[in-house]
Design brief:
Radius of gyration: 20 Å
Helix content: 55-70%
Number of helices: 9
Strand content: under 5%
Distance between the termini: 47 Å
Order of helices and strands: HHHHHHHHH
Number of strands: 0
Number of domains: 1
Shape: globular
CATH topology: Glycerol uptake facilitator protein
CATH class: Mainly Alpha
Structural class: mainly alpha
């Protein structure tokens, strides 16, 4: 249960921090943070939560990540419903908190977008459904590839949260104009439910595309990375010595 609560809190923070920056701060007159700021905000939510709860739940914060790690052989299938349920619930609660905050400003109109993901006329740059689908598949594929590589037991220890957070920042810098960047079905659901209408009608793409991308990313990493268990340590030599200069027996 503690793992699931950690995922709920972590996903809450991701949606509140990432979508909150888009809704409240991106276009603030004269000093708004813009697309760069929103991209950094999403990356920072992952970095901070990875250090906070990574040792408790693995800090997935994303149904596509959980699916990808399962395909990659890093996560048990029996945990998927609980992780995904906790992630979606955390995202929806965060969307509710953000809605209450944003609604405190005169003239707030949730139908204007509320950081929801979309394609066609609801894409920030007017990109088509095909472009949106391809973008979400490829971006999620690379995100899972980065996660699996950075958390490999042979990768430099302690740097995984930075690599993953910066990877998510880069993904947002590329794809906010196309779809407002999802790569995370929970994040998309957490705000779309408050918009309804077009946002929920287009939500299917932001579940299907990240799931496909996650599976592809996991399979790609498994293809190039020799399993850790199959890599034998170098055989000790009679002439190897330790840090004291003494011969190792």
């Amino acid at each position: 249960m503690k793992k699931y609560v950690a995922e709920l809190i972590g996903t809450f923070w991701l949606v509140l921090g990432g979508c909150g920056s888009a809704v409240l701060a991106a276009a603030f007159p004269e000093v708004g943070i813009g697309l760069l700021g929103v991209s950094l905000a999403f990356g920072l939510t992952v970095v901070t939560m990875a250090y906070a709860i990574g040792h408790i739940s693995g800090c997935h914060l994303n149904p596509a990540v959980s699916i990808g790690l399962w395909v990659g052989g890093r996560f048990p299938a029996k945990e998927l419903p609980y992780y995904i349920g906790a992630q979606v619930l955390g995202a929806v609660v965060a969307g509710g908190v953000l809605y209450l905050i944003a609604n405190g400003q005169a003239g707030f109109d949730v139908s204007a977008g509320f950081a929801s993901n979309g394609y066609g006329e609801h894409s920030p740059g007017g990109y088509s459904m095909t472009a949106a689908l391809l973008t979400e598949v490829v971006m999620t594929m690379m995100f899972i590839f980065i996660i699996m590589g950075a958390t490999d037991g042979r990768a430099p220890a302690g740097f995984a949260p930075l690599a993953i957070g910066l990877g998510l920042t880069l993904i947002h810098l590329i794809s906010i104009p196309v779809t407002n960047t999802s790569v995370n079905p929970a994040r998309s659901t957490g705000v779309a439910l408050y918009v309804g209408d077009w946002a929920t009608a287009q939500l299917w793409l932001f579940w299907i595309a990240p799931m496909i991308g996650a599976a592809l990313g996991a399979l790609a990493y498994r293809f190039i990375a020799q399993p850790e268990a199959l890599i034998a340590p170098p055989a000790p030599s009679d002439h190897d010595d330790d840090l004291t200069g003494k011969v190792v027996p």
